């Protein structure tokens, strides 16, 4: 049985992706401050929004799989220490799992899993929730299964995992916007570790590189970060000059 709190959180996880898509759509339509620093001045492909909306019906799979594990008796710890530890562990593992599975999806033999998401070269308000069923399944199972196994040895907290999913849905939405809302000097401090919207936009437009989820750590460690990223960020956030071509570069350099 589920508690009222667990049901409420699962509903949030199920619907938040669409709520964030609506947020970005309304922000863009109203010319909100968040949407004034455009990244790519390139039109969306015909039919992109409709295709992404059809794919988005798969988004609640996060909540369905997490709820199934709770129904089976997993993740029953409700203490505050377990919440903090579970949230931190989920964040770290998700960064690792996303990076390496994402790179694997770009291998010719596995590209079929990831190809649907990459049909969107310029991000729209709905791109963040447009994935194939296979990609959603691999992503979620890769995160939840290890914690299900761990739960047999160390009691895991449902709310810690669910909170990560909530944060992921918000961050992923911001990462797939076509607007950079962070300050001009972001990459001089916290941006050395955390990724930005420009960061992930380069992955979509150039198809490779910048594989990380919320951080730049593994991209920098394994030399898969686009070397002109910070210069492009400055051009967009300081000079307010959006990119006019998908593979436009600030300076010539080798691709990851």
Note the topology:
Elements: H1 4-29, H2 48-55, H3 61-71, H4 80-105, H5 111-118, H6 133-150, H7 158-175, H8 197-206, H9 217-221, H10 229-237
Helix pairs in contact: 1-3, 1-7, 3-6, 4-6, 4-7
Structural features, described:
By secondary structure, the chain is mainly α. It has helices at 4-29, 48-55, 61-71, 80-105, 111-118, 133-150, 158-175, 197-206, 217-221, 229-237. The longest helix has 26 residues, at 4-29.
The arrangement of helices and strands along the chain is: HHHHHHHHHH
Unreliable stretches covering 5 or more consecutive residues: none
Distance between the termini: 48 Å
C-alpha geometry: globular
The largest sheet is:
none
Strand percent estimate: under 5%
> Which radius of gyration do the C-alpha atoms yield?
18 Å
Protein structure class:
mainly alpha
The count of strands amounts to 0
Binned, the helix content reads 40-55%
Short description, anyone?
The chain is mainly α and 256 residues long. 54% of the residues lie in helices and 0% in strands. It is globular and about 55 Å long.
Task: Supply database-style keywords.
256 residues; mainly alpha; 0% strand; 54% helix
